[in-house]
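Ops channel
N.P.: pipeline sanity check, posting one input/output pair.
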C-alpha cells in the first residue's frame, strides 16, 4: 500500500497523546457547556473588524460567506483510472510531471528517456499549490487579472523508478524502486550521476505562468516567470536578529562556511500563501534523504540525539549493514551535490563536511513567485519539523499575524507562529522584504489540548524553565530551540496528535481546522482504546489493522475577540468530522457518513472564501478497496455547533468506555463527495480564482502501487493516467503515470460546488 500514510515515528517523549485528552473530554460533562457558552462570540463580532481593514485588493476584506448550500450531485465511490466529477463539470490537465518549462527541451517522453536533469521540467508528486495573479506590469495582485503564476510543491521521490528507462539502478542492478519509509540497499548509484540528478531535481517547487482562454487556463512555455526551485537552488538562512549568528553556526557546511546560505528545499508537501502574496513551501519528510556510509564516523552525541528526534540516519549503521533509509544519492562521487547527502564526519570541522546539512532542512521556505530573480528564504523563526502546510489566521490591520502549522508524523504537534510586526496592507506585494518583516521576528508556540475543550499555546523559548532545564536535550540557546523545535515542544508538554496534516482557516469565522489523517495499531492498541480513545477499532476489512485507520478533523477557535486574537494564548476546540467507511458500525462511523460522503484519511484542507466550502482532500490506504482517494465539499459550522454524540468504546473485545462529546454529523446535504482520483493517487493541492469559478486541484502519484520492474519486461501499471484518461482530461503520451494539476470549471460558468 501507499507509503504516504506510514510516516515514521520519532517522538519518544512521554507527552500526553491527544487521544488521552480527547477521551477525558468525552467524559467531561463541563465541556459541552464551555463550548456552547462561547459560540456566540464568533462570526458576528468579527464582521466590523474584517470590513474595516482594507480595500478591494486586501485579502482581509472578504465578506464572511454563508455557504449557499451544495448544488451538485455527489459522485459515488470509484475505482476507475480517471478523475470523476459531478455532471456539469469539466476537468482539464494544466500541467503534469516532466512537462518542459522551455521549448528548447524535449517533450516529456513517458518512457523515462529524458537525457536532461529535469531542472527545467515540472517536478514530480504535485502537492500544495497556490495562484498568484500579476498585473500587466508583472506586479502581484490579489484580484484576478487573467494572468497568474501557479506555484506547485513537488513532494517525494517514491516513484522515481518511472524516470529511468528500466527503474532505479543501485550496485549495478537496475529495475529497482526506492521505498521512502522502508529500507533500501546501500550500494553505489550510477557513477555518471544522471539518475541521481533527475531524482534530485524533480523535487522542489515549480512556478509557471498561466494564461486564461475562455473559461480555462493553460501554462505558458518560455515565460520569464517559469522557474524551478530544486534541492540545488541557493537560499538564504533567516531568523530573529538576536539569534541569527547562532542559527548560522548550526548551518555551517562546506558549501557555505558562514552558514548564511544553504541549498534548496525537499519533500515539499502542504504549503502556505502569505497575506502579502508570497509562497511558503513546507519541508516535510526531508529526513529520509540523508545517510552515513557503513563504518563512517558519527558526529557528537548531541547532534545524534537531535537527528534521532527527526529521523535522520537514526540508527548507526553497523559495519555489516546492507540497507538503510535513503536512496543513495551520497554514493555518487565527483560533486558536493551528491556528497552533501552524506552526513558523517568526514572533515576536520563542520566547515569541511556536511554533518550540518540536515540542519538546513525542515523549515518553511518563502518564495516570491512574482520576482523570478528573488532569493528564497528559510524562515527559521517558524521552527524546524516535518512542516505540513502553514495557514494564516484572519489578518487584521494593526494586529500581529498568526500562522498555524502541523508536524506530520504520528504523535507530533500543532504549532503557531505569531509575528512581532503588526499587519499593514501596504505590505501586499512586498515580496521577500515583507517576509523579512513578518516571518523573522515572532513567537513560536506548540498546542496543548485540555480535556475540558479548551487548549493553550505553550511558548517555545529558551527562557521557559522547562526548556532551559530539559533533561533529555541540553539546549544551548534560542537558536538551538528553533532548530530543534520538536524537542522544545516535548519539553513543554505539547499534546501528541494523530499526524497533523494540513490546516485551513474559515475566513468568515477565523476558526482553524486541522486534518489528523490516521493513526496506527501500534499507537492505538485495543488496550489503549480501553483507556483513552474515542475510537480504537478494527478497519472492517483489515486493510489497515486497528487503531484510528480513518482519521478525523479537529477545529479550534482562538479565545478573545475574533478576529483580533492572533496572539491569544488559549482556544476552544471540538471535532468537526470523523472519517469512516459508511458501512462501519455506529461506534466507528460517528459522523453518520453515507455512501455519498464516506471518506478516510483526511489530508488536505482548503477553505473557499468565494463559496464558503471547506474542501477536504484524502490520502488513504484503508478505504481504497472500495474507492480511490477523493475531494469532498463540507459546509463548515462553528466550534461547538455539533450534536452530542455518545460513543461506546467496547470494541475489539476490550473493556470500553462510554462518553459524550460534541461533534458534527453533517449529513448528505452538508458533506458531499465532489471528485474521485485515478488509481493509486492522492488528492493534494487546491486553489481557486477569486470568483470561485475555476478550481485547481493537484493529483499526486497515480499508479503509486506499480511494482518495481524487477525481472519483468514491462511495468505492471496500476495506472497510466493521464495519458490514458478519457475526454478532456487525457493529457500527454500513453506511458507512465504522472502527477498533475487540474483545472475544473462548471459548464454553465457558475461557482464551483454551490
Ligand atoms: Fe506529505 Fe503529510 O503528507
Ligand atoms: Ca499530504
Ligand atoms: Ca478498510
Amino acid at each position: 500500500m501507499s507509503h504516504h500514510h506510514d510516516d515514521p515515528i520519532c517522538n519518544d517523549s512521554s507527552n500526553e497523546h491527544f487521544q488521552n485528552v480527547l477521551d477525558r473530554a468525552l467524559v467531561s460533562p463541563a465541556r459541552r457547556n464551555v463550548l456552547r457558552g462561547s459560540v456566540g462570540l464568533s462570526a458576528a463580532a468579527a464582521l466590523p473588524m474584517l470590513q474595516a481593514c482594507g480595500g478591494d485588493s486586501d485579502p482581509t476584506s472578504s465578506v464572511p460567506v454563508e455557504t449557499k448550500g451544495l448544488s451538485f450531485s455527489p459522485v459515488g465511490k470509484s475505482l476507475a483510472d480517471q478523475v470523476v466529477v459531478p455532471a456539469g463539470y469539466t476537468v482539464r490537465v494544466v500541467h503534469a510531471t516532466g512537462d518542459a518549462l522551455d521549448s528548447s527541451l524535449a517533450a516529456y517522453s513517458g518512457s523515462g528517456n529524458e537525457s536532461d536533469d529535469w531542472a527545467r521540467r515540472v517536478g514530480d508528486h504535485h502537492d500544495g499549490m497556490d495562484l498568484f495573479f500579476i498585473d500587466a506590469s508583472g506586479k502581484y495582485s490579489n484580484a484576478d487579472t487573467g494572468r497568474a503564476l501557479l506555484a506547485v510543491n513537488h513532494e517525494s521521490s517514491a516513484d522515481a523508478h518511472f524516470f529511468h528507462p528500466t527503474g532505479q539502478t543501485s550496485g549495478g542492478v537496475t529495475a529497482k524502486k526506492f521505498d521512502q519509509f522502508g529500507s533500501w540497499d546501500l550500494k553505489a548509484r550510477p557513477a555518471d550521476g544522471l539518475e541521481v540528478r533527475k531524482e534530485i531535481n524533480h523535487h522542489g517547487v515549480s512556478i509557471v505562468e498561466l494564461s486564461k482562454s475562455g473559461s480555462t487556463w493553460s501554462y505558458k512555455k518560455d515565460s520569464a516567470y517559469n522557474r524551478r526551485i530544486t534541492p540545488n537552488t541557493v537560499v538564504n538562512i533567516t531568523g530573529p536578529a538576536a539569534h541569527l549568528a547562532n542559527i548560522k553556526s548550526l548551518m555551517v557546511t562546506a558549501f557555505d562556511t558562514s552558514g548564511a546560505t544553504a541549498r534548496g528545499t525537499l519533500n515539499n508537501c502542504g504549503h502556505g500563501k502569505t497575506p502579502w502574496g508570497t509562497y511558503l513551501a513546507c519541508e516535510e519528510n526531508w529526513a529520509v534523504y540523508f545517510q552515513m556510509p557503513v563504518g563512517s564516523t558519527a558526529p557528537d552525541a548531541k547532534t545524534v540525539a537531535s537527528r534521532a528526534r527527526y529521523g535522520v540516519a537514526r540508527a548507526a549503521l553497523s559495519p555489516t549493514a546492507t540497507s538503510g533509509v535513503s536512496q543513495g544519492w551520497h554514493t555518487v562521487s565527483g560533486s558536493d551535490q551528491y556528497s552533501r547527502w552524506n552526513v558523517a564526519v568526514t572533515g576536520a570541522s563542520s566547515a569541511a563536511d556536511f554533518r550540518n546539512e540536515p540542519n538546513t532542512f525542515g523549515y518553511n521556505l518563502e518564495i516570491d513567485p512574482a520576482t523570478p530573480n528573488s532569493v528564497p528564504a528559510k524562515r527559521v523563526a517558524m521552527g524546524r519539523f516535518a512542516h505540513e502546510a502553514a495557514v494564516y489566521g484572519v489578518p487584521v490591520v494593526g494586529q500581529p499575524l498568526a500562522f498555524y502549522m502541523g508536524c506530520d508524523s504520528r504523535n507530533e504537534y500543532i504549532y503557531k507562529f505569531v509575528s512581532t510586526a503588526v499587519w499593514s496592507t501596504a505590505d501586499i506585494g512586498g515580496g521577500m522584504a515583507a517576509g523579512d518583516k513578518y516571518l523573522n521576528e515572532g513567537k513560536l508556540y506548540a498546542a496543548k489540548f485540555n480535556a475540558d475543550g479548551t487548549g493553550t499555546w505553550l511558548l517555545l523559548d529558551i527562557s521557559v524553565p522547562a526548556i532551559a532545564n530539559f533533561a533529555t536535550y541540553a539546549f544551548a540557546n534560542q537558536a538551538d530551540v528553533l532548530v530543534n523545535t520538536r524537542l522544545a515542544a516535548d519539553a513543554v508538554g505539547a499534546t501528541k496528535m494523530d499526524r497533523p496534516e494540513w490546516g485551513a482557516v474559515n475566513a468568515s469565522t477565523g476558526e482553524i481546522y486541522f486534518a489528523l489523517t490516521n493513526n496506527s495499531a501500534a499507537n492505538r492498541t485495543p488496550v489503549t482504546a480501553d483507556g483513552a480513545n474515542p475510537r480504537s477499532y478494527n478497519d472492517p476489512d483489515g486493510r489497515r489493522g486497528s487503531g484510528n485507520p480513518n482519521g478525523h478533523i479537529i477545529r479550534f477557535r482562538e479565545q478573545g475577540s475574533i478576529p483580533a486574537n492572533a496572539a491569544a494564548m488559549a482556544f476552544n476546540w471540538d471535532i468537526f468530522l470523523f472519517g469512516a467507511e459508511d458501512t462501519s458500525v455506529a461506534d466507528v462511523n460517528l459522523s453518520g457518513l453515507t455512501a455519498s460522503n464516506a471518506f478516510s484519511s483526511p489530508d488536505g484542507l482548503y477553505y473557499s472564501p468565494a463559496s464558503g466550502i471547506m474542501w477536504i482532500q484524502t490520502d488513504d490506504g484503508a478505504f481504497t478497496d472500495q474507492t480511490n482517494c477523493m475531494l469532498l465539499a463540507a459546509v463548515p459550522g462553528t466550534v461547538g455547533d455539533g450534536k452530542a454524540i455518545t460513543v461506546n468504546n467496547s470494541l475489539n473485545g476490550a473493556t470500553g468506555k462510554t462518553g459524550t462529546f460534541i461533534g458534527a454529523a453533517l449529513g448528505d446535504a452538508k458533506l458531499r463527495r465532489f471528485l474521485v482520483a485515478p488509481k493509486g493517487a492522492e488528492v493534494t493541492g487546491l486553489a481557486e480564482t477569486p470568483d470561485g469559478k475555476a478550481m485547481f486541484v493537484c493529483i499526486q502519484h497515480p499508479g503509486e502501487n506499480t511494482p518495481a520492474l524487477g525481472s519483468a519486461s514491462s511495468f505492471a501499471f496500476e495506472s497510466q493516467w493521464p495519458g490514458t484518461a478519457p475526454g478532456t482530461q487525457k493529457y500527454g503520451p500513453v506511458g507512465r503515470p504522472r502527477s498533475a494539476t487540474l483545472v475544473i470549471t462548471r459548464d454553465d460558468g457558475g461557482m464551483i460546488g454551490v
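N.P.: looks fine end to end. Residues 269, 501, 603, 619 surround calcium ion (ligand 2) (CB under 6 Å).
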